Amino acid sequence: MIEFEQATVVAQGADGPDGRAVDVTILHPVTCRLTERRIAVVGANGSGKSTLARLVNGLATPSSGRVVVDGLDTVRDGAAVRRRVGFVFTDPDAQLVMPTPREDVALSLRRLPVDRAERDERVRAVLGRFGLADRAEVSVHALSGGQKQLLALAGVLATEPAVLVCDEPTTLLDLRWRRVVDHLLDALDQQVLQVTHDLEAAARADRVLVVDAGHVVFDGPAADGVGHYRDLMAVR
């Protein structure tokens, strides 16, 4: 369960007329409890939706208020939260750091208390689950964009997080790979919070948050949330 308790994010902006730095509110106070299995977050570019998502695993920290995941405060219990919350970025190149898929997944497992034989077995199993077994030893740079995103997901899910946060995971993918990733996310047992511009994916969620200018302006059923966002964009 993800809980936002008056969580606010303020950043220091440019100098004001008097030469002093002016604070900029990136995310206005958010209070909600997310218990659903699939939550979508939609909003225009720069609306604050990615900041909201990054609060869940501590990539961003609240300037005031707090965020709690399964009873763990994301600031006070940051390390424990990161063990429970996996995060997938828009661009897989931002998180693939090892030369081959096998090595990249193995790196994700390095913190788990397993011996080398068990780790190697888990790497093979994860790559097989994501259809990457035959690519285990090729260069990561030789993978297609879709395969890279699958590998990024594989590395995160190999550690078996309770919650998965995805920040626009299909934005850079073509239609074929978008469907592959969408179907994979829909089938996961984990609670998934997905930031997305894909309104079809959002419509399949159990709950939708609409973020606009740093405010959560809608929180409710998916169909209503998508409709609210469409109406919002129609008047811009």
Description:
By secondary structure, the protein is of the alpha/beta class. It has a single domain (2-97, 151-234), classed as P-loop containing nucleotide triphosphate hydrolases (Rossmann fold, 3-Layer(aba) Sandwich). Helix content is 34%, strand content 28%. β1 and β2 form a beta hairpin.
What ranges have pLDDT less than 50 throughout 5 or more consecutive residues? none
Order of helices and strands: EEEHEEHEHHHEHEHEEH
Please state the CA-atom Rg, rounded to the nearest Å: 19 Å
What average pLDDT do the residues reach? 93
- How much strand? 25-35%
CATH hierarchy class name = Alpha Beta
Distance between the terminal alpha carbons, to the nearest Å? 34 Å
Sheet with the most strands, sense and barrel status? 6 strands, mixed
Overall number of structural domains? 1
Instruction: Predict the CATH topology.
Output: Rossmann fold
Architecture in CATH?
Answer: 3-Layer(aba) Sandwich
* DSSP E strands, number: 10
Output the CATH homologous superfamily.
Answer: P-loop containing nucleotide triphosphate hydrolases
Portion of residues within helices: 25-40%
Instruction: Tell me the overall shape.
Output: globular
Structural class: alpha/beta
Q: How would you write the strand order of the largest sheet?
A: 6-7-8-3-9-10
Total of helices = 8
